[in-house]
Structure formats: C-alpha cells, structure tokens
Specification:
The complex is a heterotrimer of chains A (194), B (210) and C (213). Chain A has 194 residues and is an alpha/beta fold. Chain A has 6 helices and 8 strands, in the order E-E-E-H-E-E-H-H-H-E-H-E-H-E. The two termini of chain A are 24 Å apart. The chains are: A alpha/beta (194), B mainly alpha (210), C mainly alpha (213).
C-alpha cells in the first residue's frame, strides 16, 4: 500500500523531514509518533500527496478519491454552514446518495442540530468533528489523520475511538498522535520520528 | 571574459569617429537583443523545471532573468542617452522598443518582489517558473499593444533605429552583438557557479556539527 | 467533460454564495469605482479632451479589479481550505476556472454601477466601448485570479499583487482605450480577444503548478 524508500523533505535550506523508509501493507494501521517538529505533519502531507518528497521514492497505492485526510486545519469554509461545506465536498468527490451520507455523518458526529450554522460560529471541538466528517465523507479506503484527538471533548474522543475501530477493519489507516496509548491497540505498525 | 571585453572595446574603436548617437546604437540594440535572449532562456529553464522538476533549473532560470534585468536596465540607460543625443530629452515615448523595455523592466522587477516574498521551496520554484513563462508571452503581446497604442497616444512619428548600415558598420554591429551575448553567457556562468558554491558551502556548514 | 463542468459550477457557486453572504467585496468595489471617478473629475484639468476621460475610466476599472482580486483567495486561506480542494479528485484547473468565473460576476456587477456613472459624469459609451470592457474583464479575471494565487503564496501578498498584475494589465488597457476612442475599434477588440485567448490558456494550464508543491 505504502512504500517509502529514503524519503526526505526540505524547504529551501530547512529540513522538514529527515530521511526515513518504511512500508505499510493494505489494511494496515500505522501509528506515527514523535516530538513537535520531528516531521509528523510533513510525512502525512507527503502520504496524501499535498507535497512531494525532495528525495527518495514514495509510492502510495491510492487515488485521490480514495484518500481521506484530516490535517491540522479543518479545511472547511468558515463562512459556509456545515451542510454547505459537506455539499461542496460531496459534489467534488462525487459521493453517491450525497444527502443521505451527509445526514448520516452529521448525526454520527453529533452535528445534526448545528448543520445550518456557519462554521465560524462553531467551537473548536465542533469544527474538528466537522473536519472528520469531511475526511470520511466519501468513504475513503486510505485514511490519514494528523492528531485527530486535538480539541475533542470526551464525547467527541469516544466517537472517534469507535470510528477508528471501524476504519481499522475496513481501510488502511495512518494516524499521528501525541497520545499513542489511546490508539496503540489498533495499530499494526509503529513509526517513531526523531 | 577577457575576450568579450576586448571585443567590445574593439567595436568602440571602430566607430570612434562617428557621433555619440551612432556609438550608443552599437551598445543599445545588442543590449536589448541580449536582454530578450536572457528572458527567453529564463522562460525556457522555467519550462524545464515544470516539466522535469530538477532543482537546478530554478537557479538557472533565476540567474538568466537576473542577467536579463541587468541588461534590460542597461538598455534603458543607453536608450535614454541615445534619446538625449537624438532628440534632446532623456525619455521619449515614441520609441517602441524603449517603452517595451520599460514595461518588461517593471514586470521583471515584480518577479524579484514576488520571488523573495515566498519561502524557499518547491512552491517558490514553480511560481517563479510560471511567471517567467508569462514574461515570455508578454513580450510579443506588449509589443503589439504598444504599436496599437501609437494611434491614439502620439502622432505617428516615424523614427528609424539608426541610419542605413554599411557593410563595415554592420560587421561592427554583429561583433558587438556577439560580444554582448558572450558577456551574458560568461556572467551567467559566473553567477551560477557563485550561487552553487554558496549553496554547497551552506550544506557543508550544516553537515559539520557545531 | 460534464464532470469538469459540474466541478467548476460547484466551485463558482460556492464563491457566489460566500460573497452574497458576506456582501463585502462587491459593495466595496462599487463604491470605490464611483469615488475614484469623482476624484478624477477633480483631477482632470479643464480643457482635457473626452479621450482623457476614457483613459481614466480604464485606470479606474483596473484598480477596482485589483481591489477585488486582492480578496480572491482569502476564503481559501482561512482554515487552509485550498488543501482540501487540492485533495479532491477534481482537476486543479477547475479551481481556477470556478474562481475566475465568480470574479467575473463580481466585476460585472461593479461595472453595472461604474459604466452608467461614467456616462453620467463624463462621456457617453458606445457599444464597442462596452464590448471592450467585457473582453478586458475576461483577461483581468483570467490572469488576475492566477496572479493573485501567486501573490497569496508569499508574505507580502497585498503589496506584491499590484506590482505583478499591472504590467500584465497594460495590454488590456491599451485594447480597452482603443476600443473606446477609435472610430474603427475592430483591431483593438481583436487584440483583446488575442490576449484573452493566449493568457487564459496559459493561466488554465499553469494554475496547477502555482498551487501545488
């Protein structure tokens, strides 16, 4: 699924990710840990294709429409409502039965009541939940989550736990987190960045 | 480089007996043509960068455009001197080529502003390359625009780029142009090497633990 | 093909919806246009010909466009939404096209205010002048959207955008003024079409490289 050989990422003279190599088979669950600045976010961006490695070879067996990504930023328009945001992404990802799927996700993540509010009015936790909806909207087979537990309250974190358990069975997952203990039981592989 | 300078002085010798206006012409037009060549090279290297993605093309494109801007500035200066000699004013709008260079000079000044406002990295390389390509497209379009604007901005004053050239003068002109191109090539290589050495020094400095 | 058009439509609609909700850019542009025309009334010396007025119309249009273009990519910057759009399977050029179309709509609305105001304050506008305005708008939106994305990648985006946009806009101004003034505007309108075609294709093809790494 993922084959990374000696990949590194540099921005001009600044190192974002030092050379690493690893592999992950299909349906694997990779847990990425490391201190701040060790390159976790950069690595995840490389995996989803938002950046290309400066050197080395990286191959990911997933098309753009199969990739679901949750980054540090929620990737949603602040001045649109949750519904409008998901509608847009639903169209771009050509999600079948868009309305039903959006409704189902919003309900699952506890955002149904707030669906017609602008994202600007959301709390950080709600925004994070919406970002998760966005990441999972098109039923991706390759899910990459960058510190997904950030800003989630207990209820939200439990929702995410359940979601991760489901995903671990059906998709290839890569998760970076500061709280590895939470996710460790699901992981089939670990990668610690220096 | 010594050869290039010698050639330029040789050309100056050849038409020393002619008027200032004439002498400048031997510099001004070759400078302009070399400038175009520089921008062309810059755009070409930019295209290669977008195509192949090798980092070195970015440096080459930037250096070529840097040189082109220098030659372009010189074109404007010599053009201004020529204008003073020919028409008594330091700037004339009736010379199409001069106006074109002014527009291009502005465009490529903006190139540097844009480039240095972006953090180093692949983003900056690609944006610089696309900009260089736009520059290449802008050159003919601007020229056409300036020609079109003739009709309503100024009464049509037809000026020629110098009198008819005799064989000897034409030869001198070609020599000057060749010298200019050679000068560009030499300065280009020097600047590139200098920048590469800078880069390698920095790499070495980082590799050595403090 | 129709998937591409659907993507473009969804993206353009999103921009229109954002502007309808915020109502920031178009009103600002409209007021700016009229204010600038008034300023120019005072700036023009008494005996200036009508042609000078047309010149100032075009200066006004370009700077008003700049105002709008500076805000082009702001919604995508907050929350890094652009990353989200880049991850989607749609063609990257569709993002550019959707944004350009929306910007064209905003510019058109501002000009619905500007052109009658100009005709009222200064001089009447013939059909060919209006055709020139429409054609120039296409060029402005096509190139401006791309260039705005370039400037947005840097630190000093608001400073850099006018510097980068104006040299590219000079041919449009020439074409526009020509079509306003000349008795036979054919060649100027044709020139505008040439510019539009060339630079639209360039922008369409190179947008991907401007926004990706």
């Amino acid at each position: 699924m993922i084959k990374a050989a000696d990949i590194e990422k540099r921005y001009g003279r600044a190192w974002a990710l030092r050379r690493i190599s690893f592999e992950l088979g299909p349906n694997g669950f990779l847990l990425v840990t490391g201190a701040n600045g060790s390159g976790k976010t950069t690595l995840l961006r490389l995996l989803v294709g938002l950046a290309s490695p400066t050197r080395g070879s990286l191959s990911v067996a997933a098309e753009r429409e199969q990739v679901g990504y949750l980054g540090h930023e929620p990737l949603v328009y602040r001045d649109l409502t949750a519904l409008e945001n998901l509608e847009l992404y639903g169209r771009l990802y050509r999600v079948s039965e868009r309305r039903e799927r959006i409704g189902m996700l919003l309900e699952r993540f506890g955002l149904w009541e707030a669906r017609n509010q602008r994202v600007a009015a959301y709390s950080r936790g709600m925004t994070q939940r919406l970002a998760l909806c966005r990441a999972l909207l098109h039923d991706p087979s390759f899910v990459v989550l960058d510190e997904p537990f950030t800003a989630l309250d207990t209820a939200g974190a439990e929702l995410l736990d359940r979601e991760l358990a489901t995903l671990a069975a059906t998709a290839t997952v890569v998760v970076s987190t500061h709280d590895p203990a939470r996710v460790a039981p699901l992981a089939t592989a670990r990668l610690a960045l220096a | 480089m010594g050869v290039a300078l010698a050639l330029i002085f040789f050309v100056a010798e050849v038409d020393a007996d002619q008027g200032i206006s004439q002498k400048i012409f031997y510099f001004h037009v070759p400078l302009a043509l070399t400038s175009y060549a520089c921008f062309g090279v810059g755009a070409w290297k930019g295209l290669r960068l977008l195509w192949k993605g090798a980092e070195r093309y970015d440096l080459e494109s930037y250096t070529a455009i840097h040189q082109g801007t220098i030659f372009g500035a010189l074109t404007l200066v010599t053009g201004s001197i020529w204008a003073k000699a020919s028409w008594g004013r330091w700037w004339v709008w009736s010379e199409d080529q001069l106006v074109l260079f002014l527009v291009l000079f502005l465009f490529y000044c903006a190139y540097f502003m844009l480039r240095f406002s972006i953090e180093p990295g692949p983003r900056r390389e690609r944006i610089s390359a696309v900009y260089a390509l736009f520059g290449a497209a802008l050159i003919p379009v601007s020229f056409l625009a300036i020609r079109l604007s003739r009709r309503f901005i100024h009464p049509v004053v037809f000026t020629r780029h110098g009198p008819q050239l005799t064989h000897a003068q034409f030869a001198a002109f070609c020599v000057s142009w060749a010298a200019m191109l050679l000068l560009f090539y030499v300065m280009y290589r020097i600047e590139l090497i200098g920048k590469r050495i800078d880069g390698e020094l920095r790499d070495l400095r980082e590799a050595v633990p403090a | 093909m129709s998937a591409y058009a659907a993507d473009v439509a969804a993206l353009a609609r999103k921009d229109l919806r954002l502007e309808l909700r915020a109502r920031e850019v178009v009103p600002a542009m409209s007021v700016f246009v009229v204010a600038t025309l008034v300023v120019f009334h005072f700036a023009l010396p008494r005996n200036s010909g009508r042609d000078a007025a047309y010149g100032l119309l075009w200066v006004t249009l370009v700077f008003t466009a700049l105002l709008g273009l500076g805000r082009s990519w702001v919604p995508e910057r907050e929350g890094r939404v652009l990353d989200g759009l880049l991850l989607a399977p749609c063609d990257r050029s569709a993002i550019w096209l959707g944004k350009s179309l929306a910007t064209f709509a905003f510019l058109a609305v501002a000009q619905l205010v500007a052109l009658p105001a100009f005709a009222l304050f200064f001089a009447p506008l013939r059909g060919q002048a209006i055709a020139g305005v429409v054609l120039a708008d296409v060029g402005i939106c096509a190139v401006g959207t791309l260039v705005s994305a370039m400037a947005a990648a840097g630190r000093t985006r608001d400073l850099v955008l006018p510097l980068v946009f104006l040299p590219l806009a000079i041919p449009l101004i020439v074409g526009g003024i020509g079509s306003s003034i000349a008795t036979r505007a054919g060649s100027y309108l044709l020139f505008l079409v040439l510019y539009d075609v060339l630079f639209s294709i360039l922008s369409w093809a190179s947008f991907e490289y401007v926004v990706t790494e």
